[in-house]
Q: What sequence folds into this?
């Protein structure tokens, strides 16, 4: 018998009761002794920049969904409602820190110097990856749930051995926190005092199961069991995300070891475009979280302070539309490579095993041409 779990709106909203925040959902600035010292230097212009980044991320995410629905992409993982986490934490990092994302932090590629085509060509199946990870200091998005946490810890241990002061950062969702890879990564990070920050985006749903099913207590509470300090932060508050990340990075950078951040947010759309969230959650819950939108709260704060107006918002919208148009152009003009090229760029150097596979696949492809010829 299959057990169906439901999460009431009241249960969902209690997830925010103990989170650290600096902006309320209606855009009012509040004090937090833990976070305030880390954002004292951020003025209206800096916060306006974070708003811009989130607005661009949302627009490009919407374009990705549209391209998939129109048959131009194989899959897309929507990030609507979670922009504050990616933007706030990534902007807090230094250029030489190395980030290891999952598939829902695609906007970080733009923040790190990538181009719109980098967000879509892999989802179209045209390339193994797009940008050069070492150029952007950003690993290729990981599809295997939680695997990137191990990569980040290994990289962080390499930083230690090289004597550097960079930090590795890894992103994953609440569902991934139940994976063995994530827990193993935390064991190694703690044991070796690795300079790594774990950023868990708790968006309340691991595909179709609510977070309450896999974690009866806050996910951030697991980290101290590994000897890792943690903080639970409002993931829809970009100012709080920036502050928490600055704290975490400083701790790791000065040799304090790993830090765990649980950013409490909500996945407004489907898990991926192959999912139908209306089958497992109700509209009341969705609307309750819509009122906590990360963009509208920053907009309200900036407007009240006189640091944002309609003209600036319109200019940001035009910039976002331009980048989205570049995404679409990259997809519509992409050249689908011959199937045999799937073997290209798999290894740095060719080897006999790969050549054997290539020869067999080439013979397989040739068989279709032979059949077509005989049919004529």
A:
């Amino acid at each position: 018998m299959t057990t169906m779990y439901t999460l009431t709106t009241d249960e969902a909203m209690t997830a925010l009761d103990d989170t650290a925040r600096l902006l309320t959902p209606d855009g009012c600035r509040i004090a937090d002794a833990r976070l305030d010292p880390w954002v004292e230097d951020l003025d209206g212009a800096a916060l306006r920049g974070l708003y811009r980044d989130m607005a661009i991320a949302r627009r490009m995410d919407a374009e990705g969904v549209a391209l998939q629905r129109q048959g131009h992409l194989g899959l897309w993982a929507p990030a609507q409602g979670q922009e504050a986490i990616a933007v706030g934490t990534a902007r807090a990092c230094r250029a030489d820190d190395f980030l290891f994302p999952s598939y829902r932090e695609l906007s970080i590629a733009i923040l790190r110097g990538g181009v719109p085509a980098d967000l879509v060509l892999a989802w179209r199946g045209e390339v193994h990856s797009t940008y050069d990870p070492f150029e952007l200091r950003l690993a290729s998005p990981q599809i295997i749930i939680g695997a990137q946490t191990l990569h980040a810890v290994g990289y962080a241990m390499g930083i230690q051995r090289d004597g550097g002061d960079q930090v590795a950062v890894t992103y994953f969702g609440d569902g991934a926190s139940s994976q063995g890879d994530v827990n193993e990564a935390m064991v190694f990070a703690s044991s070796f005092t690795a300079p790594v920050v774990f950023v868990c985006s708790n968006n309340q749903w691991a595909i179709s199961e609510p977070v309450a099913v896999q974690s009866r207590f806050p996910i951030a509470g697991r980290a101290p069991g590994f000897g890792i300090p943690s903080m639970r932060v409002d993931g829809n508050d970009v100012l709080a995300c920036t502050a928490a990340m600055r704290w975490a990075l400083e701790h790791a950078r000065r040799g304090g070891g790993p830090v765990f951040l649980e950013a409490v947010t909500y996945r407004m759309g489907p898990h991926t475009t192959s999912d139908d969230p209306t089958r497992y959650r109700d509209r009341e819950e969705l609307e309750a979280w819509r009122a906590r939108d990360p963009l509208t709260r920053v907009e309200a704060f900036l407007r009240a302070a006189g640091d944002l107006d309609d003209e600036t918002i319109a200019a940001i919208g035009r910039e976002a539309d331009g980048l989205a148009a570049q995404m679409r152009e990259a997809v519509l003009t992409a050249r689908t490579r011959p199937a045999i090229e799937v073997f290209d760029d798999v290894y740095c150097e060719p080897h006999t095993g790969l050549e054997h596979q290539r020869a067999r696949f080439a013979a397989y492809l040739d068989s279709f041409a032979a059949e077509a010829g005989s049919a004529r």
Remarks:
- The longest strand covers residues 196-202.
